[in-house]
What does this fold into?
Amino acid sequence: MPADARLYAYSAVLMGSPILLKLAEHDEKLAGDVFRLIRQQENLFTVNRAGSQLMAVNAAAGSHPVAVSAPVFALIKRAREVSLLAGSCFNFAIGPLVKRWKIGFQGDSVPPAHELQALLALTDPARVQLDEQQQTVFLPQPGMEIDLGAIAKGYIADVVRDFLHQRGCFCGLINLGGNLQTLDAPAGETAWAIGVQLPFGEPGALIGSVAVSNKSVVTSGVYERYFELNGRLYHHILNPQTGYPLDNELLGVTVISDRSLDGDIFTTLLYGLGVEQSLVFLKDYPQIEAIFVTREQQVVLATQQPFRLLDERWRIIDSTV
Ligand code: ADP
Ligand code: MG
It folds into this structure.
């Protein structure tokens, strides 16, 4: 990419993911502040380390409500709403199942069916109680657990974008392990070319790229975190109805939106719906655009942003024409 020659890249590993910041000007101080901000935000939402507000909520399951800060309350509230949408496979109360499978964290076996069944009973999102007045969250049964792993990075990507704007930085890009938020494109360019990964390919191998600026691009794929057993692939996005990984024609979904939080929510929602239902569903959300990558080596475009195919083995199906 010739544009990259005029960019400064800063990287770190945070939240278990590679983080990449690109700026038009060399600014070590700003980059340091951004990484500090991400770490701070992560501390609010992680469920893998003691001390986060979310951990406190989970630890008090079956015991008492826990007061959380305004941003944490707001994100939990949004997560609950989305979890309760009709037909939603997004479920923020899915923690007990995620913890049991441990996919992406050394998990490499299929839990017994009766265990999954028992854990499913602890994942009803409607039972999570939010008190707007007190800003508290209560999990009424021991063992219940909130997991915001599907949306925390999206939320944080938006926080970083706003922070960069506040600091007078309008050209750049932040990539939080697959959650991308773009600002203005580099001088002389009209857009950023954001890669859509080749599933199970070498790192950096792409099916194609989509041209955007001032938009978020979020991808969720079955190839990101998974294990294989007896010829079957078990990945990290679970079907809250069955307790097993979602299984349909999709290998990945990329969502293009203004807010990365929306991108993160919709990748999970659309992944659960599959291509056909997603295309119907998206009619009600004109501000959300998507690219579907299927097992049949199809790239189904539901976006107005220009897409460039880079791997000729894949076939483009444009749902917008
Ligand atoms: P990543 O970008 O880290 O791959 P995703 O945004 O694709 O993450 O979300 C996957 C994560 O979301 C899982 O690791 C788990 O923590 C959580 N999760 C798994 N299944 C669901 C679900 N059905 N609803 C909400 N969150 C889920
Ligand atoms: Mg997500």
